[in-house]
Predict the structure.
Amino acid sequence: MPQKHVVRLLEAASQIILGKERELQLALACLIARGHLLIEDTPGVGKTTLAHMLARLVGLQLQRIQFTSDLLPADIVGVSVFDRDTHSFRFHPGPIFAQLILADEINRATPKTQSALLEAMEERQVTADGTTLALPEPFFVIATQNPAHQIGTFPLPESQLDRFLMRIRLGYPEPAAERALLMGENRRSLLERQQPVVTPGQMMELQEAASRVTVAERLIDYLQALISATRQAAEFNCGLSPRAGLALLAAARARAFIEGRDHVLPEDIQTVFPHVAGHRLHLAGDGRSAPSSVLDALLRAVPVR
């Protein structure tokens, strides 16, 4: 039964985002692994549409936050306002109190504002005026990001990047998919008619089922060898952290689950590795995120055990 939900989700998603089956599978794996997703690409390739689509297919309450240079942390978390009737401060929740947060163009806000998401993404709670408030379940953040060279962008702090389980790029569509897009119905109209394929409760069941996917001890050895290789490689400022290792394991489990298996294969780790590690590894010297060519070379250099 859980696998039936996965198939229906991917089929419905591929009707809206054309020609991007691999990216859709990665995005779904990220949600099933209880992770947050960072989509980095040029404007106009469907980043925001992807987030709206996932919220619609899973029936999640969506809040879109448009990140700008003047956005403040209180605009995200909420603010306490003095109530004259009760002579006390009353907290007004911000848009963070939703099941899916679309942080649109997150790198157009200052690092101080970006950091307002840290506690929410890691602990799934926020602290306001000394009071800890739980966020709804399930809780996801999907952030879109323009390339760093564009005017008016701020680099995401490494602590912020580390909270995203995966980073993906959609890229331009293939000619056939783009032609179908140009000749077909408006994507927004399709989304408005789209009914949920699963419920939030069923998504949580998928998450629980994926967490039970078996990982053999020899695959743990392989995963550790990959992590160790990033720490020893001269190309990177520093290697992957233990948190990144846990993220890689969760993503591999989710990918195996989507493929209909109850165990992880080396191919699962290799498929998710560039998307889990790419935004966490920075080149020594210029500090840029590790390009795919460097990550592919590292995968080739570490033998499967």
